[in-house]
Write a structure and sequence with these properties.
The chain has 138 residues and is an alpha+beta fold. It folds into 2 domains: 1-75 and 83-105, MS2 Viral Coat Protein (2-Layer Sandwich), CATH 3.30.380; 107-138. Helix content is 18%, strand content 37%. It has a 6-stranded antiparallel sheet with strand order 1-2-3-4-5-6, with no helix packed on it. Strand 2 and strand 3 (31-35) form a beta hairpin.
Length: 138
């Protein structure tokens, strides 16, 4: 089992490479990492969670759930007549979830192959277009 540590995720959605750093916050009941940005409240910070449920035996598989959530804050534009500006709040949260169901008979190599194919799957142009443009393949 890997010890929880800082996690860095890269993206270049605007054409400029950005590295998002996620700091470990908890390990129980699930592992939690949060992106610490001084100007953003905790409720508006991106986070990653990992939940692991080991099999109870029989036909029940091990289950690993990984989630990446990216909240977007409301824009606060104006203050009222008294000069009060409401604090920003979360407008919406975009989420990506991966759910691994791993049979007891699967080997470490089987699980690694599945994880690597899953990473490659998200790099495929058809999958990228489906997610980026909400456009089903035809």
């Amino acid at each position: 089992m890997a010890a929880i540590a800082i996690m860095s995720l890269s993206e270049a959605s605007t054409g400029v490479a950005v590295v998002h750093t996620f700091t470990p916050k908890a390990t129980n009941p699930m592992a939690l990492w949060r992106q610490d940005v001084a100007s953003v409240p905790v409720s508006g910070s991106a986070f990653v969670t990992i939940k692991v449920k080991t099999s109870k035996g029989g036909d029940s598989p091990h289950r690993i759930q990984i989630e990446l959530a990216d909240p977007v804050m409301e824009a606060t534009l104006n203050q009222n007549a008294a000069g009060y500006t409401a604090p920003p709040k979360v407008a919406y949260i975009s989420r990506a979830r991966t759910d691994y169901l791993l049979p007891l008979r699967s080997t470490a190599i089987d699980r690694k192959r599945l994880r690597l194919m899953n990473v490659a799957l998200h790099s495929d142009p058809q999958v990228a277009d489906t997610v980026d443009n909400v456009a089903a393949p035809y």
